[in-house]
Specification:
29% of the residues lie in helices and 21% in strands. It is α+β, with helices and mostly antiparallel strands. The chain has 2 domains: 193 residues, Fructose-1,6-Bisphosphatase, subunit A, domain 1 (Fructose-1,6-Bisphosphatase, Chain A, domain 1), CATH 3.30.540.10; 140 residues, D-Maltodextrin-Binding Protein, domain 2, CATH 3.40.190.80. The strands form 3 sheets. It has an 8-stranded mixed β-sheet with strand order 2-1-3-4-5-6-7-8, sandwiched between helices. A 5-stranded mixed β-sheet has the order 10-9-11-15-13, sandwiched between helices. A two-stranded antiparallel ribbon has the order 12-14. Strand 5 and strand 6 form a beta hairpin. Bound molecules: 6-O-phosphono-alpha-D-fructofuranose. The site of 6-O-phosphono-alpha-D-fructofuranose has 10 residues, from loops.
């Protein structure tokens, strides 16, 4: 019977083809099941009493390791993912945007070969205004012969990822996944409670007329970024010879999902607002998984100078500038940044 392909069937066929091992199939199924639980909580909103800011044990506002206000749903989503992955025997440890350090699997349970990283609810500032949010996840292999898993064992380049994905909680709940064999989308059939494949081998258009960036930061960008965006804004009368449209959801998962669906370029560049920060987005559980998904769909992902997946991480929560999406457009932006660097090599930046 050739009915719709469920996520389970997709993963079993991938395992049968030798693309993934049984424990990785189990891991992805467990993450998908956790995303279904998060989708239910997000979907209940005020009815579930889960909107608004989390409250710390001391009764004040709860702040995460990033120094950002935590929403109740940030905390709940993190707990759902940790609990779902604790007892299956497929994982060695988890790392999360919401936790300062990684969390090894409890001693009560068998330890597996994989490391799971996640942003449990990206874009959570949008929750209270009913805008799409999502879960982003990345899977690495745990190095062999490790007695006690620590943060340092997660510090692997994005090219080491064995799987990556996100689940966007919008009008539909859709899981987008890669295991290195293309990027595929699975929409939650709420009646069956199953993710069903709705897009196979997604391809991002190489060219685009749509960019996604928070323009309110424009005055803080470096000159190369100012120059690139001013050419987009100049439209058909300018050097690009075509008009561009802009979209900014302020929820990376929603912006990336649009780009996987119809093309575009998403940029969160370095800016002078906080010069010590290389960017806003986190390398390990935002940029790397999104970069793998985008590259597997024929797109490109750089930090403005070089390929994101090649970056050798130094800390678990390090940040990085992000340029990702339609390959030709990402190449234009990256080339302009590299040419600016070459032309101003040695000059001190103001
Ligand atoms: P800004 C959400 O907080 C997030 O990490 C990404 O999902 C999103 O792309 C970005 O930050 C939005 O940042 O500065 O526009 O609010």
């Amino acid at each position: 019977m050739s009915g719709p392909v469920s996520l389970t069937r997709h993963l079993i066929e991938a395992q049968r083809a030798g693309h993934i091992e049984p424990d990785l199939r189990l891991l992805i199924e467990v993450v998908a099941r956790a995303c279904k639980s998060i989708s239910v909580a997000v979907g209940r909103g005020a009815l579930g009493g889960v909107l608004g800011d989390a409250v710390s044990a001391a009764g004040g506002d709860s702040v995460n390791v990033q120094g950002e206000a935590q929403k109740k749903l940030d905390v709940l989503s993190n707990e759902i993912l940790l609990e779902a992955n604790a007892w299956g025997g497929h994982l060695a440890a988890c790392a999360s945007e919401e936790m300062e350090h990684c969390q090894p699997i409890p001693d009560a349970y068998p330890r597996g070969a994989y490391l799971l990283l996640f942003d449990p609810l990206d874009g959570s500032s949008n929750i209270d205004v009913n805008v799409s949010v999502g879960t982003i996840f990345s899977v690495l292999r745990c190095p062999e012969n490790v007695e006690t898993v620590g943060d340092e064992h997660f510090l692997q380049p994005g090219t080491a990822q064995v799987a990556a994905g996100y689940c966007v909680y919008g009008p539909q709940t859709t899981l987008v996944l890669t295991i290195g064999q293309g990027t595929h989308a699975f929409t939650l059939d709420r009646e069956q409670g199953a993710f069903v494949q709705t897009r196979s081998d997604i391809r991002i258009p190489g060219e685009t007329r749509e960019f996604a960036i928070n323009m309110s930061n424009q005055r803080h960008w470096e000159p190369a970024m100012q120059g690139y965006v001013s050419e987009l804004l100049a439209g058909r009368e300018g050097p690009r010879g075509k008009d561009f449209n802009m979209r900014w959801v302020a929820s990376m998962v929603a912006d990336v999902h649009r780009i996987l669906t119809r093309g575009g370029i998403f940029i969160y560049p370095w800016d002078r607002k906080d010069p010590g920060k290389p960017g806003k987005l986190r390398l390990m559980y935002e940029a790397n998984p999104m970069a793998m998904l985008v590259e597997q769909a024929g797109g490109a992902a750089t930090d403005g100078r070089g390929r994101i997946l090649d970056i050798a991480p130094t800390t678990l929560h390090q940040r990085v500038p992000v340029f990702l999406g339609s390959k030709a457009e990402v190449e234009v932006a990256t080339r302009q940044h590299c040419e600016h660097d070459a032309a101003h090599a040695g000059a001190t930046t103001a």
